[in-house]
């Protein structure tokens, strides 16, 4: 991201900043999915072996979101994730314009990426579709709280010659 905000490699100092003002819907999703705190969820994403994590920053350098992909036991299959603070609205248009490209770079090397999103997190659903993902299934009783979640996925396009 340029002009206003930007994206960089995440570090552990980003975690408390993003977590302290996390979007209410993201906090609820983390709790329903895993029972973890925002800090625990962000740390898990950042420290997962073989994973890649990026931070979305305001022009001042303050991180307002973190996203990444972590490998699964299946070759070339990853779990993609993103959590944001309320501050992301300050660069919302830029984030939307540039997020597809950022995601494309992040998932290079995978054949398929997927995850689950809380059915209540409607802002997240719109962004997931905007970023090129497809919601493929609703799970009525999913996660720690056994709430409705939507499964989404994206097949990573390859350049074939």
CATH superfamily: Gcn5-related N-acetyltransferase (GNAT)
Helix content: 25-40%
Instruction: Tell me what the CATH architecture is.
Output: 3-Layer(aba) Sandwich
Count of helices?
A: 5
> How many domains would you count in the coordinates?
1
Q: Roughly what fraction of the amino acids lie in strands?
A: 25-35%
| Structural class label | alpha+beta
User: What order do the strands of the largest sheet run in, or round the barrel if closed?
Assistant: 1-2-3-4-5-7-6
What's the overall average pLDDT, rounded?
Answer: 93
The largest sheet, given as strand count, sense and whether it forms a barrel, is:
7 strands, mixed
Computed over alpha carbons, the radius of gyration is: 15 Å
Per DSSP E runs of 2 or more residues, the count of β-strands stands at 7
CATH topology: Aminopeptidase
Give the CA-based shape: globular
* Termini Cα gap: 30 Å
Low-confidence stretches: none
Spell the H/E element sequence: EHHHEEEHEHEE
């Amino acid at each position: 991201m340029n002009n206003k905000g930007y994206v960089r490699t995440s570090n552990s100092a980003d975690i408390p900043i993003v977590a302290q003002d996390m979007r209410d819907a993201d906090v609820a999703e983390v709790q329903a999915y895993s029972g973890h705190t925002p800090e625990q969820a962000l740390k898990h994403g950042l420290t997962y072996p073989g994973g890649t994590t990026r931070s979305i920053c305001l022009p001042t350098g303050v991180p307002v979101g973190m996203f990444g992909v972590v490998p699964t036991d299946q070759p070339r299959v990853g779990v993609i994730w993103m959590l944001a603070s309320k501050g992301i609205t300050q660069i919302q248009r830029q984030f939307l314009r540039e997020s597809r490209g950022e995601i494309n770079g992040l998932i290079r090397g995978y054949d398929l990426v997927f995850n689950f999103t809380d059915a209540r997190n409607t802002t997240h659903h719109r962004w997931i579709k905007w970023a090129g993902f497809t919601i493929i299934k609703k799970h009525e009783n999913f996660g720690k709280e056994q709430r409705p979640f939507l499964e989404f996925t994206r097949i990573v396009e390859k350049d074939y010659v």
